[in-house]
Amino acid sequence: VQLQASGGGLVQAGGSVRLSCAASGIIITINTMAWYRQAPGEERELVAELTSGGSTNYADSAKGRFTISRDKSKNVVYLQMNNLKAEDTAVYYCNADLTTGWRERGDYWGQGTQVTVSS
User: Fold this and answer.
1) Given a cut of 90, is residue 6 above it in pLDDT?
2) Which of 7, 13, 35, 40 is deepest in the core (most CB within 10 A)?
3) For residues 96 and 44, what is the distance between their CA atoms, to the nearest angstrom?
4) How many CB atoms lie within 10 A of CB 95?
């Protein structure tokens, strides 16, 4: 099972970016998909998560600006980020709590994608 993230880049403050993360491999169930971020010198933090039932949870810093969504048919999770601020600059990682075809439940991470917001 692999998670492949894409969509990062350089954007001006106030702009928008959409991140994508595709899960591939033999997957029976995806329980939760989430986005984390890690800024230089900081610990990795949860940005947003989405359960299989459709419940969402956002970091306070993301509320009202970011939206997490998922295309279940493609095992893809998105993070739409609007009104970006310089403090959103970080490497963004996707995460999935899923069960593989071997009936193993585990926590999987994508490779990270850089988002840089210029002020």
Assistant:
1) yes
2) 35
3) 15
4) 21
**pLDDT digit string, tens, across residues 18-62:** 999 999 999 999 999 999 999 999 999 999 999 999 999 999 999
Within 10 angstroms of residue 3's Cβ, the number of other Cβ atoms is 21
Angle at 49 between CA 116 and CA 71, to 5 degrees: 90
53: helix, strand or coil: coil
Mean pLDDT of the chain: 96
- DSSP secondary structure code for residue 74 in this structure: T
In sequence order, which residues have a C-beta less than 8 Å from that of residue 17 and are 6 or more positions away? 7, 8, 9, 11, 81, 84, 115
Burial status of residue 107 (CB atoms within 10 A of its CB: 0-12, 13-18, 19 or more): exposed
Terminal Cα-to-Cα distance of the chain (whole angstroms) = 37
Long-range Cβ pairs for the range 39-45 (8 Å, 24+)? 39/87, 39/89, 39/90, 39/91, 42/90, 44/93
